Amino acid sequence: MSDIPAPFEGLYDDRHLVWDRFIRVFHWALVASVTTALVSGFLLDASWIRLHLMSGSFAVALVSTRIVWGFTGPTYARFSQFFPSAEQVVSHLRAGTSHARHIGHNPLGALMVFALLLLIIALGLTGVAVLGSGLKTGPLAAFLSAAQGPFWTELHELAGFALLGLVVLHVAGVIIESRRSRENLARAMATGRKEKRDGDLVAPPKPAHLMLAVLLISGLEIGAVVTINALSQRPLTLPPVGTIAQVYGDECTACHMAYHPSTRPAVSWQLMMNRLSDHFGEDASLPEGTRTEITSWLVQHAAGSTDSKPAMLWAGLQETTPMALPDTSIWQALHASIDDDRFKRRAIYSRSNCIACHKDAETGWFSPFQISIPKEPSQ
């Protein structure tokens, strides 16, 4: 399967065509997507989550197509050509520098390929679980609870560290093998060709089944998109803020945004509603009937009764006097990367004005996809 125009074929008579176009494009595209996912996941804050999600999803899509190509592609793309046995791995290790040169992947390189592919798939699956549990979005949102979020988040992070470790080992292996074999393997992955040498382990040629690969990849991707969209449409339930005949909205939002009841535990709401005469320095007293009605609704839909990450975070809030959310250690930890000057902007005005940056604050979800910190308006 030559990808060199006929007039130039003679220039490559002394070289094996090893890596076809698909493998080369796949390799460098995977390098870019994995690098972006790791950087955005480990070094950047929550506002970069879209980039992290896009790069991670692209990496999983690339791996999915590579798996198909591993059964339908040409000689050195086939998994059957380089899938190593335990005996081959041991023999390769014992041979040291004396073993024959593998034109495709050697046994250790093959193990690295399979480990990377499997780990990227695992990262994709745990990432979807993080979205579904911790962020309550995506295809698993209706099947996982917010309480499972920490487990999936930790597993996803561990897989990320494992991938980072494998990447370092892979780069080190390429450098060592390039020096040992006196051949630039990174360049070979760019050109697709390796120098012909005596004693090379060359595999019998196998043709690529391009149309079959296109059909399988198209069916796989379309099926994945349809399934993800269908599962993502399953309804989630959080009590809407205005379900008590506008009493809560009319009374409480006269002075501030409508804080969702899931942002505090029941005891916290009761404490606050029992001390409205001194409501953070203001007299917010209400008629007893109105106060009782609002308190009952807030308690009914408080943090302990709601399946969301914010509800889980604040479910254990304990206080003897009403505490503003920005004064809690949880809020401060979540906003530690934001400097004080940003909260002083006129567009935000107050740390308690959640809706200035969280467009869905009044729904109680606080999705990272809905974060947008406003800039200071021009003079």
Commentary on this structure:
By secondary structure, this protein is mainly α. The protein has two domains: 6-232, Fumarate Reductase Cytochrome B subunit, CATH 1.20.950; 247-370, no CATH class. 51% of the residues lie in helices and 2% in strands. It has 14 helices and two strands, in the order E-H-H-H-H-H-H-H-E-H-H-H-H-H-H-H. The protein has helices spanning 21-42, 49-72, 79-82, 86-95, 107-133, 149-181, 185-191, 210-232, 247-252, 266-273, 288-300, 309-314, 329-334, 340-343, and strands at residues 15-17, 193-195. It has a two-stranded antiparallel sheet. Helix 2 crosses helix 5, helix 5 packs antiparallel against helix 6 (149-181) and helix 10 packs antiparallel against helix 11. Mean pLDDT is 87; it is low at 4-11.
Task: Provide keyphrases for this structure.
379 residues, mainly alpha, 51% helix, 14 helices, two-stranded antiparallel ribbon, 2 domains, Fumarate Reductase Cytochrome B subunit
Sequence-ordered SSE layout with sheet pairings:
Elements: E1 15-17, H1 21-42, H2 49-72, H3 79-82, H4 86-95, H5 107-133, H6 149-181, H7 185-191, E2 193-195, H8 210-232, H9 247-252, H10 266-273, H11 288-300, H12 309-314, H13 329-334, H14 340-343
Antiparallel strand pairs: 1-2
Helix pairs in contact: 1-2, 2-5, 2-8, 5-6, 10-11
